[in-house]
Design brief:
2% helix, 4-stranded antiparallel sheet, 380 residues, single chain
Length: 380
């Protein structure tokens, strides 16, 4: 077995469960928030705020009408920017696309060995500090993380030969996780679903139902919570979106089963409860989400942070949500059912927010031009 797989499977077992709740989270919402409304906490009484304190900066907010960036995509899953050039993964075709400034798409390469079935296939992308492209995809023997050199100039980019950093993450036709992102610490974070093996989410010897943390070369960071293990947090069903606030707070979205989807604050070594609990449960030893929604109104996938606001793409809910970092138990809905299923969201180099639809993935109702990437301005 590859040494990286062995290292990833060697999770420690001496950490007490009670230690998972040492880092408190903000008070969670106890119900699914009402749609299409913004819940801004009341201002503090004037007498409680010293006159010398500066006013808090306004959080970023959606401004204006989305404009199309690209159309005619086939089940796009992730969008990232490499030196300003947008790259998009297509789940079923296995292709990585480069978008021109005019919105036309060309393939820079096909990830070989992709086994696209149901929710699996070519999923998350991330760009390393040296311009390499990190790719999460499903192969015949499980999900994997690969690193590709990118050759050429914008307009003629191409993928080089991959280096497989991690493989045999449990896979299935559903619950594959698939989001990858570099954190502010320079480490690569990977979401892995439970692959329909519910109990594996609580098994720290399994990579399923986890958020993983690795070095850019695929090694186990020395300060991971469980010595010798890539496991960063566990007890997840199908985590997807990853984002960090300006102060380093890590957030993740998660698909629930029948009751609650979740927005979680992620702390190292914490247990998020699946399959014992779903949503806010108040059970000792488990970390509750800071906000929850009924799956039919949400199914949160990709997520981005900009200017003190989290922006969440939602599939079944067919909505873009904004969540203020200062009050993560509240949210506002945007573009409800205007564009269908929304899979991913990213902050573009020009400061606009990009989001991509997922109506051609077999679960949506395709519209003319689908699937699309749209961009909308932000204001503060």
């Amino acid at each position: 077995m590859d040494r990286r797989v062995l290292a990833a499977a060697a999770a420690g077992t001496s950490i007490l469960l009670a230690g998972c709740t040492a880092a408190p989270s903000p008070a969670p919402a106890t119900t699914s928030p009402a749609p299409a409304t913004s819940s801004t906490p009341p201002s503090a009484p004037a007498s409680s705020v010293p006159a010398t304190d500066p006013a808090p900066a306004a959080a970023a907010a959606i401004a204006g009408t989305p404009q199309p960036v690209a159309t005619g995509l086939n089940a796009p899953w992730s969008v990232v920017f490499r030196d300003g050039t947008p790259l998009v993964s297509e789940r079923n075709s296995g292709q990585v696309l480069e978008l021109s400034p005019e919105g036309s798409a060309r393939s820079i390469g096909t990830v070989l060995g992709v086994a696209a079935r149901g929710e699996s296939g070519l999923l998350g992308l991330a760009v390393g500090s040296q311009g390499d492209l990190y790719v999460y995809s499903t192969a015949a023997d499980g999900n994997r993380v690969q690193r590709f050199p990118v050759n050429g100039e914008p307009g003629s980019l191409s993928l080089g030969q991959p280096d497989t950093l991690l493989e045999r993450i449990p896979s299935a036709s559903i619950h594959d996780g698939g989001r990858i992102a570099f954190g502010p610490d320079g480490m690569l974070y990977v979401t892995a679903g439970d692959a329909s093996r519910r109990d594996s989410a609580q098994d720290r010897d399994s990579l399923a139902g986890k958020i993983l943390r690795m070095t850019p070369d695929g090694g186990v960071p020395a300060d991971n919570p469980f010595p010798g293990s890539l496991v960063y947090s566990y007890g997840h069903r199908n985590p997807q979106g990853l984002a960090w606030a300006d102060d380093g707070t890590m957030f993740a979205t998660e698909f629930g089963q029948n009751t609650w989807d979740e927005l979680n604050i992620i702390t190292p070594g914490a247990n998020y409860g699946w399959p014992t609990v779903e949503g806010i449960a108040g059970r000792p030893g488990f970390v509750d989400p800071v906000q929850q929604w009924q799956p039919g109104a949400a199914s949160p996938s990709g997520m981005a942070h900009a200017g003190g606001t989290l922006f969440l793409a939602n599939l079944r809910g067919q909505v873009l949500r904004s969540v203020p970092v200062s009050d993560p138990a509240t949210s506002t809905e945007h573009f409800s059912r205007e564009y269908g299923r929304i899979r991913d969201v990213a902050l573009a180099p020009d400061g606009r927010l990009w989001f991509l639809t997922n109506n051609t993935d077999g679960r949506g109702d395709p519209r003319p031009g689908d699937d699309r990437i749209l961009a909308v301005h932000l204001e503060r």
